[in-house]
C-alpha cells in the first residue's frame, strides 16, 4: 500500500536510489567493513578477518528485509540486527564485526556517504539549470521588456537581464554547496559518547583510517553523534535553493497571465489538457508544482533545527525525524531542480507582447529617462523630478500620452529639441548596462 507521494508521483529513481533501503544498508555495511580494515591495519584483528568481513559486507548477502525481520523479531535494534545478519556469513570472524563502535558511528558515517552521493546529483542538477538559464539569457540579451516594481511598470529592462539575475543566483547556490561540502560530508568513529575509549590509545588513528578509507571528513569533537549543526546548514542551503526556484517559477506564472503574456510555460498542444471543464485553459502546472513542492521542502527546516537540541551527549528524539527529513529534502530538491531546468529550456517567450506592454503606459515608463536628461541639461534633479511628476499626473488625468504633455510645456521644450525628446522616450535607449551584464554573467 503506497501512502507517500514520493513513492508514486514525485522524484526521480536516481535520487530515490541513494536513500533506498538497499543503498542505506550497503552504506552501513561499507562502514562496518572500513572499520574492520582499520583494525587490521593496526594489528587489532587478523587481516584475513577484515577480508572476510569486507567480502560479505554487501546487500547481495545481507538482505535488508532479513535485517528488518531480525530487528523486529529479535534484537529490537537496527544496527545489532545488521551485525547479526552479516555475522552469519563471516564464520569465526563474526566476533570482529563492529569492534569498539557505537551504533551512531555506523549510522552517521553511512549517512554522510548518502549525503555525499545526494550532493553529487544536486550539483549536477544546478550546473544544468545554470547552463540553461545562461543560454536563454544570451538568447534574449536584446529583448526589451517592462521592468516592474510593486507589480507596476518601472523602467525598461531586457528579458536577458531577468534571466541573468536568475543565472547568477543559481551560481551562488553552486558555490554554497561547494564551500559547505567539507562541513556537510562528515562521519565519526569515536564510540559511545565521543571519547574513543572503546578504541583505546588507537582511537584517533582508527577514526582517521576509517574516514580516509571512505573518502570523507570526520568529527574531531563529538558526543555520540555528528553535530547536527551540519544538518542545519545542509537543510538551510536546500531551503534557500527551493526559495529561488519558487521565485523563478512565480515570475513565469505572473508573466503568463493573459493580460501580460510575455512568457509562458510550454504546452503540448496536440494532447495536453489544461482543465477538465475549461477546454481553453493552458495552466502553468509545472511552475505551480515547483512552488508547491518548494513550500513543502522548507517545512523540514524547523524540525532540523530542533534536532540539534538533544539531552547531554545525545538522545533519540532526532532519529525518527531525520529518517523522514533527509530523504524527502533530497528527493524533493532534485525533483524541482529538474523541473525548473525543463521549464526554462522549453519556455515560450513573446517579444511582440513585451513591445506592446512597453507602450501600455503611453510613455510614462520613460519618466525617469526624461528626468535624467533634464539633469544633464543643468536642471536640478529635485526640480526635474517635480516637473516630471506633475506631467505624469496630468497625462493620467487627461488621458494623454506623456509626450503630448511634455511638448506643450514651453519651458521644458526650451531645454530639449523634439528629436532629443523622441530619443529619450525610446525604451531601447534606456536599458542601461542590461546587455553588458548579460554578457558578463554568461
Describe this structure in words.
- By secondary structure, the chain is mainly alpha-helical.
- The chain has three domains: 8-96, Orthogonal Bundle (Fumarase C, Chain B, domain 1), CATH 1.10.275.10; 103-141 and 153-188 and 218-356, Fumarase C, Chain A, domain 2 (Up-down Bundle); 364-424, Ribonucleotide Reductase Protein R1, domain 1, CATH 1.10.40.30.
- The chain has 19 helices and six strands.
- The protein has helices at 13-18, 21-41, 47-56, 64-75, 78-87, 103-139, 159-184, 203-214, 229-255, 285-298, 301-306, 317-345, 351-358, 367-376, 381-398, 402-407, 410-413, 418-424, 434-441; strands spanning 144-149, 152-158, 186-187, 217-218, 263-264, 348-349.
- The chain has a two-stranded antiparallel ribbon. The protein has a two-stranded parallel ribbon with strand order 3-4. A two-stranded antiparallel sheet has the order 5-6.
- Helix 4 (64-75) packs across helix 5 (78-87), helix 6 runs antiparallel to helix 7 (159-184) and helix 14 (367-376) runs antiparallel to helix 15.
Distance between the termini: 48 Å
Low-confidence segments: none
Under the CATH scheme, the architecture of the largest domain is Up-down Bundle
CATH superfamily of the largest domain: Fumarase/aspartase (Central domain)
Shape: elongated
Helical proportion? 55-70%
Element order: H for helix, E for strand: HHHHHHEEHEHEHEHHHEHHHHHHH
What is Rg?
Answer: 30 Å
Strand content: under 5%
How does the helix and strand content classify structurally? mainly alpha
Compute the number of strand runs.
6
Return the average pLDDT rounded to an integer: 94
Largest sheet: 2 strands, antiparallel
User: What is the multimeric organization of the chains shown?
Assistant: single chain
Indicate the CATH class of the largest domain: Mainly Alpha
Q: Give the count of helical stretches.
A: 19
Amino acid at each position: 500500500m503506497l501512502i507517500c507521494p514520493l513513492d508514486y508521483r514525485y522524484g526521480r529513481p536516481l535520487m530515490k536510489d541513494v536513500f533506498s533501503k538497499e543503498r542505506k544498508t550497503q552504506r552501513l555495511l561499507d562502514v562496518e567493513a572500513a572499520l574492520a580494515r582499520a583494525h587490521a591495519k593496526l594489528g587489532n584483528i587478523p587481516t584475513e578477518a577484515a577480508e572476510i568481513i569486507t567480502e560479505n559486507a554487501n546487500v547481495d548477502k545481507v538482505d535488508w528485509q532479513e535485517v528488518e525481520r531480525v530487528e523486529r523479531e529479535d534484537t529490537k535494534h537496527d544496527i545489532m540486527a545488521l551485525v547479526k545478519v552479516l555475522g552469519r556469513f563471516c564464520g569465526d570472524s563474526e566476533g570482529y564485526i563492529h569492534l569498539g563502535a557505537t551504533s551512531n558511528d555506523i549510522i552517521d558515517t553511512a549517512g554522510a556517504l548518502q549525503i555525499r552521493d545526494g550532493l553529487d546529483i544536486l550539483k549536477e542538477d544546478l550546473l544544468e539549470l545554470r547552463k540553461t538559464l545562461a543560454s536563454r539569457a544570451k538568447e534574449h540579451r536584446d529583448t526589451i521588456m517592462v521592468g516592474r516594481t510593486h507589480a507596476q511598470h518601472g523602467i525598461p529592462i531586457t528579458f536577458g537581464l531577468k534571466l541573468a539575475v536568475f543565472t547568477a543566483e543559481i551560481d551562488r547556490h553552486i558555490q554554497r554547496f561547494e564551500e559547505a561540502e567539507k562541513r556537510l560530508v562528515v562521519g565519526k568513529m569515536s564510540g559511545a559518547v565521543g571519547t574513543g575509549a572503546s578504541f583505546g590509545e588507537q582511537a584517533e588513528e582508527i577514526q582517521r583510517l576509517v574516514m580516509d578509507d571512505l573518502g570523507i571528513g570526520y568529527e574531531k569533537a563529538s558526543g555520540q553523534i555528528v553535530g547536527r549543526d551540519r544538518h542545519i546548514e545542509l537543510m538551510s542551503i536546500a531551503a534557500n535553493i527551493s526559495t529561488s526556484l519558487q521565485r523563478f517559477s512565480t515570475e513565469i506564472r505572473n508573466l503568463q497571465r493573459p493580460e501580460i503574456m510575455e512568457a509562458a510555460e510550454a504546452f503540448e498542444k496536440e494532447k495536453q489538457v489544461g482543465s477538465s471543464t475549461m477546454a481553453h485553459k493552458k495552466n502553468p502546472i509545472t511552475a505551480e508544482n515547483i512552488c508547491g513542492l518548494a513550500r513543502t521542502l522548507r517545512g523540514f527546516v524547523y524540525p532540523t533545527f530542533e534536532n540539534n537540541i538533544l539531552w547531554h551527549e545525545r538522545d533519540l528524539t532526532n532519529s525518527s525525524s531525520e529518517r523522514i527529513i533527509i530523504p524527502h529534502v533530497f528527493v524533493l530538491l532534485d525533483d524541482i531542480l529538474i523541473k525548473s531546468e525543463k521549464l526554462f529550456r522549453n519556455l515560450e517567450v513573446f517579444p511582440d507582447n513585451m513591445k506592446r506592454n512597453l507602450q501600455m503606459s503611453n510613455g510614462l515608463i520613460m519618466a525617469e529617462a526624461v528626468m535624467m536628461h533634464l539633469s544633464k541639461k543643468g536642471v536640478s534633479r529635485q526640480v526635474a523630478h517635480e516637473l516630471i511628476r506633475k506631467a505624469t499626473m496630468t497625462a493620467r488625468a487627461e488621458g494623454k500620452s506623456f509626450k503630448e504633455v511634455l511638448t506643450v510645456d514651453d519651458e521644458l521644450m526650451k531645454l530639449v529639441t523634439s528629436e532629443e525628446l523622441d530619443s529619450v522616450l525610446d525604451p531601447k535607449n534606456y536599458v542601461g548596462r542590461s546587455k553588458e551584464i548579460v554578457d558578463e554573467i554568461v
